[in-house]
């Protein structure tokens, strides 16, 4: 008979869906559909219910053994929280930096109510300022990227603010210089803008150099204008953005096709109203524009997001419609643009990810990126930060300067925040998909366990929801395959 000591516990997570019984095997990063009998035994085992285990085991013992023979249901847990890149971080950052984002200005012509640089309620961030990046700093930053990316075949240079269009002269100078020093590499450019400062001259240049543009747009005018307001005017920012859309779409159709939308969802508003608006945004081929949605960043804010009761259920409903469309039971032309992007991100998250048969003894959850490698951020003063979403005023986030290089010890600390909650992380089912990085551990410039733990429940709930949605995708795919098989026969 199978035996398991009380100390050992299989590294699994059980999920009961209306249409089946599932086991998420953390070591293998695989979702297994099992019978109710196997599920109930494993559930009793997870709860340490010896009486139920003794009663339920005999009929399922062979099934459990078969799963074990196929390297599932392992009791292996990581023994030490240590990011895999820790020992090689110096080598990685010396030659494998992939992207740099330049904060070309801290100025902005808007004063968005949820902005992390707002004058109130964001004590952990800097405020709006008139600071601009100089050419000396920008040039040094681009040279820094060239020096630290020589093993990368492709690099990206991004432009950020404030509002980067307010220093477009510097943006152009950076693009022209980058094309000279990165000759031979695949070089791409990206820029995030509020969409209010386009001119034909600007669009001509962006189009010529194939700059990928992301425009912030939060929904129809009555919602967008509540939070996205001009700094010194009562004019509608929504009207200005839509006017720019109209002439760009008319005069630069190919460029317009490449524009994507970033929307900051207000969970206190009507999701349906926002969603219906984005369905109407079309590129020239009558294809819906790409919309990436997120909630206002309240990490460093005293004001937290407040959710309308129907907001999340409505989001889930629209995602369900995307799943229905896969089976041909819902028209793809009626799909939510937000939910379609959500589906693609979800599918990509769980597909083509290769996990070992057991988690290595030294490992770390999936939250932290390799600080400095994937989206290095350079502020107007030349300080190096892991990305544009962290606090610029936080001492623990400053991992170097373009003049002095990387501070390896600080970068190592950012990728190893799991060490603050080592015991919890070793046994957490959300291990591979944890969303917690150093940003969620930052308390006024110090990384700490208490701040990290406050975010654990939300991270696990998010992973649980994503697993359930992905299982629904798998079930629909299975049903489609079965239907097609019957049609053929």
Could you list some keywords that capture this structure?
three-stranded antiparallel β-sheet; TIM Barrel; 17 strands; disordered N terminus; alpha/beta; 489 residues; 16 helices
Question: What does the model show?
Answer:
- The chain is of the alpha/beta class.
- Among the domains are: 1-76; 89-350, Aldolase class I (TIM Barrel, Alpha-Beta Barrel), CATH 3.20.20.70.
- The protein contains 16 helices and 17 strands.
- The protein has helices at 36-46, 50-69, 89-95, 135-147, 168-181, 200-208, 221-227, 237-251, 253-258, 271-280, 311-326, 337-350, 408-415, 422-426, 449-454, 456-488, and strands at 12-17, 20-25, 30-34, 80-81, 99-103, 154-160, 186-193, 211-216, 260-265, 291-295, 362-363, 376-378, 383-385, 400-401, 405-406, 442-443, 446-447.
- The strands form 4 sheets. It has a 10-stranded mixed beta sheet with strand order 10-9-8-7-6-5-12-13-14-15.
- Strand 2 and strand 3 (30-34) form a beta hairpin.
- Helix 1 (36-46) crosses helix 2 and helix 4 (135-147) runs parallel beside helix 5 (168-181).
- Residues 1-7 have low confidence and may be disordered.
